[in-house]
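Most newcomers find our protein records easier to grasp once they have seen one. Read left to right, the backbone structure tokens trace the chain's path through space. Nothing more is needed to start thinking about how sequence determines fold. An example says more than a description, so a record of this kind follows:
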Amino acid sequence: MSLFDDNPLRPPNQNGNPRPSDDQPAAPLSGEPPAPGLAGDPISYAATSPASKFKSYLPDDLRISWSWPHLIVFMIFGFASLLIVQLGGIFLLSANRHLTQKQLQQMIESKPQFLVGTNVLWYALLFLFLYMTLAVLRGLPFWRSLGWKRLNPDPTAGKGSPWMYFLSGCGLAIFVALASSRVKNADHVPIQELFKNRNGAMLLMAMAVFVAPLVEETVFRGYLYPLFASKFSRLAENAGVDPLRAIRIGSAIGIVITGILFGLMHGAQLGWTWGLVSLLILVGVIFTFARAWTGTVLASFLLHLGYNSMIAVTAIIATKGFSHMPPGH
């Protein structure tokens, strides 16, 4: 069932089986493996979502095994691991040296491989956390549990082809570039420091094309969006909204929240220039809408890949292969 399908929801007893009462757990979903027993560890417990009758109404892509406690553990791990990675990198840079804070800052800015390297390492740790807590401790299929599946190939479904999403991402990048040109101080943001030299620009573009779309889409559209959408859908259903409308409300809230978090995550890179951050929030909302509409992270990944690829191509053309950097750099 699509999130935005207008067909009425079929009740759980469509095959003639008696509908479970409110105090009985719903029967296991078809094709869904039974949840393994807990091993007594807190992370496995945090990944558990109690079974309920409402779960049977959710689309397949919103039936997840993690809940708010798992998100809290994930956030704590994310902040702690980022701090450790950055402090570890700073320690390696300043080992056997007595540097002032200003000298250390200048050294970090002069080494783009430090900024890109620590970011990639942090991404890897986030992936490791999700893999360990979902695939290892819970025994779930990692990629499919996080929303990765093929686009519906049926043209009558109206979901579009992979190339449509990639090219749409390219077009979105052009729109954002034009809109950014009207934002004050758009050329004086921290991320521009990586364009001071050819190596920094090349590393940034490589990460933007080959790493960021995969990791960010898995975390935001694969992990965060279905959590927000399913939980707010349930809140709406508990408030008396009919299941179909509750799912639509929850999905809309999930799209907006995920888009906002996506834009805010890039805030520091943009020097908290709110015009640019707002554009990134809009981009995040569009990416998440594509994920919700198609029911697969692949759609938002292709949008993201096209978006970042267009930025990389235009940067390469504008700098003639990063051999002629912009004035002032």
In short: Residues 68-94 form the longest helix (27 residues). The CA atoms of residues 86 and 118 lie 6 Å apart.
